[in-house]
Amino acid sequence: MKYKKIDAKSYAKANFTGIWAANLTPFDEALRFDEQAFRDNLRHWIVDLKLGGVFIAGKQAEFFSMSIAERKRMMALAVEVASDCGPRPQSAPAAIVTSCSDTNLDVVLDLAKYSQDIGADYVIVHSPVLHFGADTHETIFEYYRYLSEQLDIGIAMWNHPDCGYVMSPELCARIAELPNIVAIKYSTDKEKYTQLTQLAGEKIQISNPDEDEWLNNMQELGWKLYLCSTPPFLLQSKVDQRVNEYTTLALKGQFKEARAVNDSLNSVRDAFKKSKPKGKPQAHAKYWQELLGQHGGSVRRPLLQLTAEEKVMIKKAFESSGLRV
Question: Would you state the CATH architecture of domain 5-237?
Answer without folding.
Answer: Alpha-Beta Barrel (3.20)
